[in-house]
Amino acid sequence: MPHSLPSDKALVPFVSVDHMMQLIHHIGIERMLQGLADYIEADFKRWQLFDKTPRVASHSDEGVIELMPTSDGEVYGFKYVNGHPRNTADGLQTVTAFGLLAAVDTGYPVLLSEMTMLTALRTAAMSALVARHLAPKDATTMAMIGNGAQSEFQSLAMKAVCGITEVRLYDSDPDAIRKCAQNLAGQGLKVTSCITAEDAILGAQIITTCTADKQYATILTDNMVGAGVHINAIGGDCPGKTELAPAILHRADIFVEFPEQTRIEGEIQQLPADHPVTEIWEVLAGKASGRTSDKQITLFDSVGFAIEDFSALRYVLDHIDGTAFFHPLDLLADPDDPRDLFGMLQRAK
Ligand code: NAD
């Protein structure tokens, strides 16, 4: 049964994984990817308003657990997210997440949501939003290297937001290629499965790398990257975890979310700290150029930034009112007399 967002401030709307999936189907995945790209673009255009900090990361040999906070002065948000590349061997996700929005004036949460699905959608929407500004204007084909959990979302966002018509799939695990090709069948894209990464990038104007390995990996070597392509590098997002040969970085114009975070986590951790990069918000706000020539190699060194999650949570909050896709959650103690928390406990005996 559809319901309105709770007027009782102690009840917090909670969007479960099941509800998130229903919401995505209700809106339509491509429409939602377009909507998320619009919300992210709107928030990046008011970049200066936001509190910004590199995410707080707790590293282990197996992976990383991170908190990603931000605020625009009226709303505060954070995401909890992990990255554990070896999890899939045990039947677990590499990346899982949940997140929260709160009202700055009271500090009370206004939304709690799963964000494993939502992160895949927002990462894809961000990739496609950036590609819309940096990829060659006539781009029709994307090489998708790394065909894990993010890959179908990345492919559909590039279709919905940038209008690509073909994806060329490659993964070191043939089962992952098969899974991705099956999932993308009937989605309106020409899907070509490839047996090498070199084969996958043939004729592609956009190259997305989205692999998971906790090392300085070389998914793309220098000789694989020709003039004029746009590289969307997603998988290098943690210290000691990269995907591109350093020589590519020296030939490319590099665009980043928040340099203070990307220099720690992105491909550019392989470069000197003063290597020039462009902040993507400046391109979105018309303050810096994106692609300026047909020959230019553009690189989006994506690591994922808190404002993208904030935008995604804002989108969800704006779209659940009047639907059945949330539970009102009894998350906050709410005594009748705010100073009588103990009395409330006694009365509950
Ligand atoms: P996943 O584990 O589901 O998929 C990763 C895939 O990469 C697997 O299919 C694996 O076989 C493949 N792979 C590993 N090494 C490879 C190689 N050398 N060549 C080709 N394929 C290889 O992970 P996922 O959830 O799809 O995430 C992919 C990566 O993206 C992770 O590193 C994750 O941390 C990162 N990520 C980044 C963002 C961002 O905002 N930038 C957001 C989400 C995830």
Distinctive features:
349 residues, 11 helices, 24% strand, 17 strands, Rossmann fold, alpha/beta, binds nicotinamide-adenine-dinucleotide, single chain, ornithine cyclodeaminase, domain 1, seven-stranded mixed β-sheet, eight-stranded parallel β-sheet, 33% helix
How many β-strand runs?
17
**Which small compounds were modeled alongside the protein?**
nicotinamide-adenine-dinucleotide
Q: Can you say what the CATH homologous superfamily of the largest domain is?
A: NAD(P)-binding Rossmann-like Domain
Q: How far apart lie the N and C ends?
A: 33 Å
Q: How would a textbook summarize the main sheet? A: 8 strands, parallel
- The string of secondary-structure elements, in order, is EHHEEEEEHEHEHEHEEEEHEHEHEHEH
Number of domains: 2
Strand content: 15-25%
| Order of the strands making up the biggest sheet | 9-8-7-10-12-16-14-15
DSSP helical segment count? 11
Radius of gyration using CA atoms only: 21 Å
CATH class of the largest domain: Alpha Beta
Helix content: 25-40%
The CATH topology of the largest domain is given as: Rossmann fold
Account of the 3D structure:
- The chain has 349 residues and is an alpha/beta fold.
- It has 2 domains: 11-117 and 307-347, ornithine cyclodeaminase, domain 1, CATH 3.30.1780; 127-304, NAD(P)-binding Rossmann-like Domain (Rossmann fold), CATH 3.40.50.720.
- Helices cover 33% and strands 24% of the residues.
- The chain has 11 helices and 17 strands.
- The protein has helices at residues 17-27, 29-45, 116-134, 151-162, 174-184, 197-200, 246-251, 259-265, 280-284, 306-320, 341-347; strands spanning 11-15, 56-59, 64-71, 75-83, 97-103, 109-114, 141-145, 166-170, 190-193, 206-209, 216-220, 230-233, 242-244, 252-256, 278-279, 297-301, 327-330.
- Strands 9-8-7-10-12-16-14-15 form an 8-stranded parallel β-sheet. It has a 7-stranded mixed β-sheet with strand order 2-3-4-5-6-1-17.
- Helix 3 packs across helix 10.
- It is globular, with a radius of gyration of 21 Å.
- It binds nicotinamide-adenine-dinucleotide (NAD).
- Nicotinamide-adenine-dinucleotide binds at residues 83, 88, 94-95, 119, 123, 145-150, 171-173, 176, 210-213, 217, 219, 234-235, 237, 302-304.
